[in-house]
TrEMBL record:
Signal peptide boundaries: none
Pfam families named among the record's database cross-references: Glycos_transf_2
Catalytic class of the enzyme: transferase
Source organism per UniProt: Lactiplantibacillus plantarum
Lineage of origin: Bacteria, Bacillati, Bacillota, Bacilli, Lactobacillales
Record protein name field: Amylovoran biosynthesis glycosyltransferase AmsE
Keyword terms: Glycosyltransferase, Transferase
Length: 276
């Protein structure tokens, strides 16, 4: 079984040092550790975050994990940062990690086993289910369930995001084959999944809950409002203009998803919990 993989994370100035430290701890607790870890520092990150990153670098050194830093002189956003980080990764398998989420110790072992199965050699990306917490992972406040089979993913991908981005493991060569991450604020991952499906690649999920995702009072607020509606319209027009989605789907998405973006925050939070 191929066990060598790169870890990939983007960090910017507004991250919580405590949550970042906890996220790093969960990475270092993996039953299969990364051979290298690529940290994209998306602009200056400040003293406190720098101290946590230095601690992680030392811990990686103690475990013979090569750590690679990609430094953006200014904040460029997640899409550009992950595109740069992807190119810096040395291994075919890449595990995505978020800076405020906690990973089940067996997360990478489960996913690498899945990707290495003979029947799954045509899978480009695999994700997992997530549980959501605010104060403590012992007090869960929600879950986001995503489809397991490729057929179900392929049916839903043009209507809603079928993967939890912070859970995914993918094959670098295939991601690069569709030109990788793009600068599509709010939809960097979803845009990538659509392009993969449109180019004939398979993406799927395992049924296990392998990541505990941190949410706060602003999580749902960031997914709504006029600003996010503009991002939604840009994204939908982009995939429509590239013939990834047809006119009926485009109109449906603009109408349904546009209304959702303008819902009051409490309604938006309730809707997400109902759907997931």
């Amino acid at each position: 079984m191929v066990e060598d993989y790169s870890g990939l994370m983007s960090i910017y100035s507004k991250e919580s040092p405590d949550l970042l430290r906890n996220a790093f701890d969960s990475i270092l607790a993996q039953t299969i550790l990364p051979k290298e870890f690529v940290c994209v520092l998306d602009g200056p990150i400040g003293l406190k975050l720098t101290e946590v990153v230095k601690w992680f670098k030392s811990e990686c050194s103690n475990r013979n994990i090569k750590i690679v830093f990609v430094k953006n002189p200014v904040n460029c956003g997640l899409g550009i940062s992950l595109a740069e980080g992807l190119r810096a990764c040395s291994y075919e398998y890449i595990g995505r990690f978020d800076s405020d989420d906690l990973n089940n110790p067996e997360r990478m072992e489960v996913m690498l086993n899945y990707m290495n199965e003979d029947k799954n050699q045509d899978i480009a990306v695999v994700g997992s289910q997530i549980a959501e917490f605010s104060d403590s992972p012992q007090r869960l406040i929600g879950r986001r369930k995503v489809p397991i089979s490729f057929n179900e993913v392929a049916q839903k991908v043009f209507l809603r995001n079928p993967l939890n981005h912070m859970t995914v493991v993918f094959r670098k060569s295939i991601i690069l084959a569709v030109d990788g991450y793009k600068d599509m604020p709010g939809f960097e991952d979803y845009y990538l999944w659509m392009r993969l499906i449109d180019n004939g690649y398979k993406i799927t999920n395992v049924p296990d809950t392998l990541v505990y995702a941190h949410v706060d009072g602003n999580t749902y607020a960031r997914r709504g409002g006029i600003g996010y509606l503009r991002k939604e319209l840009k994204f939908q027009y982009s995939v429509y203009s590239q013939n990834i989605i047809g006119t009926p789907t485009f109109v449906r998405n603009i109408f349904v998803r546009g209304i959702v973006r303008l819902l009051p925050q409490k309604w938006l939070a309730g809707l997400y919990k109902l759907l997931h």
